[in-house]
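Re: weekly structure request thread

Next one in the queue (258 aa):
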Amino acid sequence: MKPLFVEQLGHGPNLTLLHGWGLNGAVWDGIRDELAAHFTLHLVDLPGHGYSQHIRLSSFASLTAIADDIASALPSRGHLLGWSIGGQLAIELSHRAPDQIDKLILVGTTPRFIENDDWAFGKKATVLDQFAANLIDNYDATIRGFLALQILNQPNQRATIAALQTAVSARGAPNAAQLTAGLALLRSNDMRNRLAHIPHPTLVIQGDRDALTSEAAALWLAIQIAHCQYEMIPFATHAPFLSHRDIFVPLLMRFLNS
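Done, posted below.
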């Protein structure tokens, strides 16, 4: 079987980026060139997504198994950034492959997406169910709407959405089975017992207008990690690297170069 797809570009210390559910590595196109001037980027297409669709997710897939796939594709040492479910995978990788990670960055990340009796900072399962149903029925339109919400009222909004939509769609839509398997992971993942054991310097970046992961969840996450810096970006939504690039990139650079 072909390995996980990882696009590599740039020069400097290694920096691996893990995208969110239903998308692919092209979602980083808005910041990749700026980062590639300082880092060797490793842009991963997660299993079942983009050019890694040949690595099928199943209803029995686990975060552990996916993390092992990613670990085998990572450079021997470098920084790791995860966004949304990619952030949960980054947390798992910090546990399973700690010697491969220098610094950890978690963006729009919650330790648990779904609320339950002992986790008040999650979303109701129906929120994810509806998003999944929309993705399955009309992937292109749903992703276009999602991207548009992330960069609402930003300069050159229409051109940016069009460019991102083209880049993301070029790698192909995950099929319904892959999206359903990813939804099962989002429902069940619970990273809370991993946080106290993260040994790496960590940066948590959160938008205060994020409709998928709450500011309260991100702050709770940051408090549990021993060596952690927390940055909240006002008016940013779930993807601050799209909506607030002028704030996001300097935050990231200062942390990685400190």
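The beta strands are 6-10, 14-18, 40-44, 78-83, 101-107, 202-207, 228-233. The chain has one domain: 6-257.
Next request, please.
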